[in-house]
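dude i think i finally got it to work??
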Amino acid sequence: MVYQIRKAAVVGSGTMGGGIAALLAGLGIPTLLLDIVPRELTEAEKAAGLTMEDEQVRNRIVEAGWKAVVKSRPPAVLSERSKQLVDLGNLEDDFDKLAEVDLIVEAIVENLEIKRGLYERIENVRKSDCIVATNTSGLPIKDLAEGRDEGFQKHFLGMHFFNPPRWLKLLEVIPHGGTDPEVLDFVVHFSEETLGKGVVVCKDTPNFIANRMFSIASAFEMAYALDHGYGIEELDALMGVLVGRPKTAIFRLRDLIGNDVAAHVGANLYELLPEDESREILRHGPTVELLEEMVERKWLGNKTKVGFYKQIINEEGKKEFWVLDLETLEHEPPENPRLEIFSKGKEIADLGERYRWLVAQVDHEDASAETQRLAKYIWETTAFMLGYASRRVPEIADRFVDIDQAMKWGFANEIGPFEIWDALGVKETVEQLTSKGIEVGDWVKEMLASGNDSFYEYDDSRQAIGYYDLESGGYKPLEVDQRVLPIELLKAPDGAVIKRNASASLIDMGDGVGLVEFHSTANALDADIFEMLSIAMDRTEADEFDALVIGNEGQHFSAGANIMLIWMAAQQEAFDQISDLIQGMQQTLMRMRYFHKPVVVAPHGMVLGGGAELSMAASKRVAAAETFIGLVEMGVGVIPAGTGTKEMIRRVINPVMRIENADPISVMQRVFEQIALAKVATGAWEAFEMGFFQPGDRIIMKKEHLLGEAKRSALAMVQEGYSPPPRERIYAAGRDVLAALRAAVWGLREAGWATEHDAVIANKLAWVLCGGDITAPDWVTEEYILDLERQAFLELCHEPKTLDRLQHMIETNKPLRN
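look at this
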């Protein structure tokens, strides 16, 4: 059977259910979101004269749930328009609408009997080919399916999203014995290709893979900390980015999850794991007592603003996060410890090598006592995790690869436990674990005995190409995604790197496509990058390439222009040098915009300031779903002057003003506020709404596919006979609109919403947006607006407060409001 998801439904409008509905709708799938009818009226409803029959009462729970989803941060909703695809209802009046959908995701309370009761009702209305999935985080799928008819059971399985559904990559798919293999294959394909998830197919065991591993390993980390006198702040500094984890590390992550949730999960999981030799760690006395006390005090974490950290507003009106002293249970001011082990360890770029170095510090004669103590925590918790992971194969997964993937995708870890083990050396580590009394899975010993000394098989460049297969006793090739184009692989052939300087490289991608890769610090734009862009276009004009791609594999595409160069030149009053820099950027980007061969840019992550301007100048944008793009120059005391202000007029204001008798005020105000408030799109979909992306641009759900898809788009444009866009004139609103914008700035200044210097910058921006000193509305050349951009930028560089903003950003990486 051919399955297709044209319409979906989610039952349960809590954080997970609402987030799943927002994700589906954001991807263009109309979604029905249902929840229960309230049992009684609120006092406010009684006072308003409402009854239990009124729709606003009956939909109160689902309305409140969806409202919380819309307001959540980080945002769960992909775009404003996608909210229109979510239809709200309740499980009594709207239940029959489930007969119209192709996918039903259940995300209600974790209670076996309540879920079964819902499925019995769904069974009576669902289409014969409708897929029903549960988002349970650990209830057995086979038990949930019990009692349902054959058709329901064939189309039933687990789809365990991780919270928040939009942002976390992992999706655990859990079939039961009656799941139709075609349904399983379709759900995996849909989840990977449409939802952009990293899918791990799990066995139907308690808490599946990721939560099973995390619950036990994190319980040990907490227990070891309490038993050996480690502090919260030092461990969160130690166990975050240094070991390839997010900054939330241990205790910030617990506050994020909720300490009540952690206590509940630990208690429940203990009962579900009678055969698990490590389950007693879930009943570690000091941990249980601490969590019970914190729950009693309502110290639940982020949701109550107090947990292991407590949000405080200090005397200066700024937020501080005070830290719980585990001995006194008092929150104390943060000490922000600077750990020697952290600073030295971060100097080692390769995470596997860094792990080896960190573990070696436990008894290294040159290491300080403090470094040895912190290294011991890393080693002891890692040793426990490695042993536990090995003992869970094949119980929870036949392939250890699935455990690695689940931990990386579910908790944003850079490497999984078996990758860590390979880095430490399997044989040596097994000997150390055995000497510590930590049992290792028999299959690991069998692997070593057969002459295989690593879990993964590696090529000469230390890239994993295979994995040890328990059944065959040898290595099997890792699945290769042909849509992934690693830059290192592109560089491998002789002569593939055509040109390189300190900040950028020109690489032959094959098939007549060149790649300009940035590799400056934070991928900040500087003279070397613009030189490489010019070289790339020169070589393409000489028919060395048919098309160009601009992209990189950094965490972020570009943090913007290198403001250090601007600040230093302004300090030295070298304003001609600044003018030349800006003009050179403008000329390069204008050449790119009207280049006669396609230039495709592949933005991802943060795309700020000059990075946004460069993206807008390309022929096409092939963007990662999580692309955060914005013109943020206001934060450093200037305005966009690398074609950015001109482009926003062309993209957003021009189309409106071509309509007869159009009013420029509202659309001008929209662009003015977007730039003046340094608004940044919260994803690629919002970037379309803000004007950074346009029809014809593409969104790629999986970032790892980005360069491959950008190349594919470039080749398609060549095949279609690409020609550059015609030149346009730019709408200049003139004196009256400028006066209106300046009045608005004055109002903000008087109300205290803008500082005096905010007003100076905003007025310069308004002047450029309205066409400078012209009196009446007119259509002017692009070059006219570019000259205004550059003039305003240079004038602001003369302002001492702009130099203060630039310096503050350079020193702290935070904007200054002065």
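The radius of gyration is 29 Å.
im so relieved honestly
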